[in-house]
Amino acid sequence: MYPHFAVVALGSNLANPAEQVRAALAELAAHPHIRLEKASSLYLTAPVGYDDQPDFVNAVCAVKTSLDGVALLAELNRIEAEFGRERSFRNAPRTLDLDIIDFDGIRSDDPHLTLPH
Q1: Which SS3 state, helix, strand or coil, does residue 59 take?
Q2: pLDDT band for position 117 (50/70/90)?
Q3: What residues pair up with 114 in beta bridges, in sequence order?
Q4: Which is deepest, 18, 38, 53, 86, by most CB within 10 Å?
Q5: 70: burial class by Cβ within 10 Å (0-12, 13-18, 19+)?
Q6: The one catalytic residue among 90, 97, 102, 104
Q7: CA–CA gap between residue 89 and residue 100 (Å, rounded)
Q8: What CA–CA distance (Å, rounded) separates 52 from 117?
Q9: d(Cα 96, Cα 58) in Å, to the nearest integer?
Q10: Cα separation, 24 vs 12, whole angstroms
Q11: Own/partner pairs for 84-93, CB < 8 Å, 24+ apart?
Q12: Does the annotation mark 85 as catalytic?
């Protein structure tokens, strides 16, 4: 039922970041085409690329999914939008960032799905 394995990175530095990340993990766990296998603890990281912003709360999770890589990315983007993600400029502060770090160990240079991210 869930033939694909993926690793997803989560991050937030706006609007109660720890709660944003926890809520996103819950959303992934409740998704009918995604099974949350494991999730890391939350941890703080400094921003990269644009320093004039708060530190990020991050986590990573392992999931199994019936979605292919492009469909999974579309779902992650939908969840980001649901959480109020705005893409004003590269490396901007954000309510939620969800990135596919690995998908079935494949490499992809597709502009829509770069793997590893």
Answers
A1: strand
A2: confident
A3: 109
A4: 53
A5: middle
A6: 97
A7: 20
A8: 24
A9: 10
A10: 10
A11: 84/15, 89/50, 90/49, 90/50, 91/47, 91/48, 91/49, 91/50, 92/50, 92/53, 93/13, 93/14, 93/47, 93/53, 93/54
A12: yes
Q: How many CB atoms lie within 10 A of CB 14?
A: 18
- For residue 100, give its domain range: 4-115
Instruction: Indicate if the pLDDT at residue 11 is higher than 90.
Output: yes
Is residue 99 annotated as part of the catalytic site, yes or no?
Answer: yes
pTM of the model: 0.95
Count how many domains the chain has. 1
Q: What CATH number did the domain enclosing 80 receive? A: 3.30.70.560
Catalytic residue among 35, 68, 99, 102: 99
pLDDT, residue 111, reads 86
